[in-house]
Amino acid sequence: MWILILCLILVVIITKIKENHHNIERCVDGKNFYETVDETIKREKSQKVIRYVISYSFLIFFALFMLLPFYWMIITSLKTEAEISLLRPTFFPKEFAWENYKYVLSAKYQWESSGKIGSFDDFQARFDLWRYMYNTLVVGVISTIGTLVTTVMAAFAFSRIKFPGREFLFTLFLATMMVPGEMMVITNYITVTKTAKDIFGITGIDSYWAMIVPFLISVYYIYLLRQNFRQIPNELYYAAKVDGTSDLKYLIKIMVPIAMPTLITITILKLMGSWNAYVWPMMITRSADKRLITTGLRLGFSDSEGRSVQGRQMAAAAVVTAPLLIMFVLLRKYIMRGVSRSGIKG
Amino acid sequence: MVEGKKSINFLKGMLCLLPAIVLLGIFTFYPIVNTFLMSFKEGYNYLITNEKNFESWGFGNYVKLFSEGNNFPKYLINTMVIVFVSVPVSITLSLLIAVALNSIKPLQRFLQTIFFLPYVTNTIAIGMVFSVMFESHQGLMNTLITSLGGSSINWLGGNTQAVLIGEGIFTHPFFNAQWFTSMIVLLAYIVWNSLPFKVLILLSSLQSIDKQYYQAAQIDGTTKARTFMRITVPLLSPQIFYLLITSFIGAFKEYTSVVAIFGDNAQSVGQKNNMATVVWYIYQKTKEQSLSGYPQTSLAAAGAVILFIIIMIFTAINSYVSKKKVHY
Prior knowledge:
The complex is a heterodimer. Helices cover 71% and strands 0% of the residues of chain A.
């Protein structure tokens, strides 16, 4: 923190000095104003070098700040318990301990290393990765498919069908984006735990549907896709009409393929959103085997246990982070596309 | 556009919008109204299924939030601290980073990717890494500090031998030195987490600025600092204001990063909920039942309405100022 502030002050001072120097150079009685071309080139060159040095050192300092947590996560996850509890932490593991990953990846190993108390079927795993992954995939895939269907239909109506009240309805939809989600969470909690029970006799606690249904719709994605649909020229539609194509066929055969990049972006962001979902799943799950990946990570490792579990904790964090990074490397183009137009994470 | 009979089109449109309207109706429009009304219901118990499950209408819940013994005002101050420190710091930093990135050629794409990395990560996972890094005994940060000759700092509490930053200045029982020290960690994480998006936005708009402005400035012999203040910042002002609004709103709703570092109770070791924010309070009261088994949802609703109003005011001020000050 202090290094950071010092660095900033240094940059400011250097630029100030340079500025003053520059000004003095220019107005000494108008006599020494002229400098030869060689001098100018030399001066500008040296200034350029200084600027480059400052830029690069500033950038590299912050790039390290950005990378540090990742580095520390990986390093710590590879350390043995003995090495972690050293008084002075090492910056590189003396020997790679894959034990932490083995622990995180296998519930069976957790059962074995906890002394095989009781049978494996009754064993409550600390971090049951595959179980959480399965839950996350069920919730993520179903809600993504559902969202794609509702989004395509709504965007089609808002961009192609002309009916009274359309603009009003669209504005009303957009206005909900201004309302903080916290307002919805309170009532939705009552809806899925109480109202659903009163009406349908089912409770949302520990159920997949309660984690899926409220997220089958997204105003932001409707907005994104509508913009895309509107760019498709009307002539295409009329041509299709002349050929006797129905609206539905036109939507599926023409509009959806054209808007494919946007749909892929929506799919990726939605899946990443389920992977990172925390607040809502946390509220409505009670039993351990309905946890999603992020809630499982948080609840599996609490901070109060001291350093003995740090290795396992970091291994779990690395396992949760890795798929996101892989996705980013492979699908960078699509992710950036959605991100640069929103401020919303996931 | 589909043209033709209005009534048929209306039916078609409604058919297409049916799923959206139903889902938004149940999970967005109804909750907004209901939460708003709930915040004015005194003694409301949603668990009772009959007509009269609350005592009376009034401002009782709001009064309760700000009455003696309720910690909500403290959490509100916590949130304000997060908003007014993390947003200016992260915007200034991201502006400097974007300008520096824009001025270099080699390594530009590589560094750009590094600066974008935190965006695609899991807030909870990396928050846990931060809590390991800032561990109060011999975490990474304390090791760095002690090897530079300083003394260990009690970042997250729990190490009575270590030093606290701001001791003597922060003497309030809640806003004590431990609060200040832990807040630094939280702010560092929030800034770390919010840099990528800002750098991305600012860099892409920097790259679209016409080079002619800079060439003209160069011919006139303008200094770099002056060019930055007089050309770059004004030309970026629409993006800066957009970032200001979105990050103000985001910072007001800070919750996951707090829980990631400080656990579900949002506290440093030995303190009570000292890192809690407004949203933390809202979620806590949604789940929690009081000792007498009474749900606290009305308090949560009142908190949410206050949050909503604050965000609205900020958005309004920002858009008013931006209309006056932002220029191309």
